[in-house]
Amino acid sequence: MTDDPTPEGIPAPEGAADLIDTDYAIGQDNIEGQVGPFGFDIHNPVFMISGLSIMAFVFYALALPEQAEAVFGWLRPALTSTFDWFFLGAANIFVVFCLVLIVLPVGSVRLGGRDAKPDYSYIGWFAMLFAAGMGIGLMFFGVLEPVYHMAISEPLGVPSPIAEDGSIIPENVEAAKRMGLAATIYHWGLHPWAIYAVVALALALFTYNKGLPLTIRSAFYPLLGERVWGWWGHIIDTLAVFATLFGLATSLGFGAQQANAGLEHVFGIPVNISVQVFLITAITAVALISVLRGLDGGVKVLSEINMGVAALLLVFVLLAGPTLTILNDFVAGIVAYGKDLPALSNPIGREDTGYMQGWTSFYWAWWISWSPFVGMFIARVSRGRTVREFIICVLLIPSLVCVLWMAVFGGTAIDQVLSNPDASSVKAQVIDSYNPPMSLFAMLEGLPLSAITSVIGIVLVIVFFVTSSDSGSLVIDTITAGGKIDAPGPQRVFWCTFEGAVAIVLLIGGGLGALQAMVISTGLPFTVVLLAMCFAIFRGLQSER
Amino acid sequence: MFTQILAPVDLAHIDRLGRALDVAADLARHYGIPVCYAAVTTPQPGTVAHSPEEFDAKLQAFAADQAERHGHKATAKTVISHDPSVDLDHALREARQEVGADLVVMASHLPNVGDYVWPSHGGKLALHAHASIFLVRDHED
């Protein structure tokens, strides 16, 4: 019987060459033990600091709601308007960086080593990264954004086709339609996916090829060296947990409000806190089942079901809506996006500040604060892909799907608004009054079988939240376990439940808006973090060649 | 009586498996049959190894060491799981079938109330596997 599980003289694996030579052993700072009958295995500084500071912020938002609202209410617009140039400029750098990686020779480096085989099929892989990345957003903004940009926000100064008295101005219609789609695609296309791709690639490279733990700090090894295992790393990981949990909790809270609006529209169920608390509890319960069934048996299965149902809804709207116009919009949307991209992504000297600061800058801060979660989840399921394949699939294909989605949902909605404005529910819910949760259902109302498709819409919204909640719990659990994938199951139950509890407490006590603003404020330091990651990726890939 | 033993091991906690490893070796010598040491790892770096290949090399070395110490034939089986916290039981069942083991010898903790929510891996294997399962406690009350 041996007490030494790591005999000397074992050669480094041939597949994963160029491991980083560090004395740090994964899990060395972890604490293992029992709470009653349940085991735990946690990275103590990160777990404790994250948990306690989250509770402290929730307490602050509840105890001093007016002060919190004032502070964070100021912080959000201050950040997105003061640093708009920084967010836009950085996002452009991420896109260019990813596109360059596709064509450079380092694109042939395989994540996991030369001989690694992909862990997941294309369909399973794509469904998971898409469901975690932005599935829920497409449900809510697919109708709202194209219509809003077409009629109200006037990106790049393109005038609205709807006059103040509600009449249509024919000469403005074509340009505004194109801009509505292009301005929306800009927010859901290359830029957000480049942000995710940078984080995911950094983590995948330093985990699978360099042998470091799957946690955010590992990407900083080229910059910080061994210091990354100390307080620098603790701060980076804690910030990631913080942004992920509050991002999920606030989304869950707002999502419950939105699903409640849909239920009222379809079934007449009243909009109140009790219904929303019930929805959060139900979403959390299903997410718990999903995380307990694991990555393959729960998260992947739900993601695939979700993608299938979303595809069916997409096909239905395409066929039931103005099909030829939609297909036209799809092509016109891509052309307009390509043509207007330089102007839309220009970070300085803009006059359309309403669009640029109110929407673009806000989106970039949100995607960036969301990126540790989505990036880490994408990294976890992307072993075995080459860098080139990874970038193409994470950057280009989701962008194309988003273009199609926006063309179908947004194109149909815009057509409803412009062809018969007086009878259009979309116009009533988006232009006449700003009621985002209702925008999808308003568009479906203008199509046949709306009673059925609205129910499908509600189900999709709820299940997309489940897929965000379960994958988020896995990510937080891994970070707070020091990068260990095989930490005891009760820990992921803890994080999933904690996330639901934070959402419920903030929903009842108020403070969701304040905490969402705080999540967005983490976008600023993370932008610097992501820029550093680009450098780390480049250094890491160079040594792989 | 038996033709092949499967001995699931956790390379990160070998110190807790002493009795189970001794029992597996004793039974192997008694019946003159080989032991396959099986362990589950992830595609990601973990406590034991940086990669599945390195993990497999360590498991092979461990099996060879056991064979030399106890004088029985030994092989090793590495199972890669995307989510071992949840998929471990399933991975072990598949490993048993692939190896063709008709006797599994593994360590298991003393039962407690937590088993009603998260049953022990040995208990789950005994519930589902079409083979004899010998669960060895580290100690008895």
Automatic annotation (TrEMBL), chain B:
SUPFAM superfamilies named in the record: Adenine nucleotide alpha hydrolases-like (SSF52402)
UniProt xrefs under Pfam families: Usp
Residue stretches making up the UspA domain: 1-137
The protein, known as: Nucleotide-binding universal stress UspA family protein
Organism: Rhodovulum iodosum
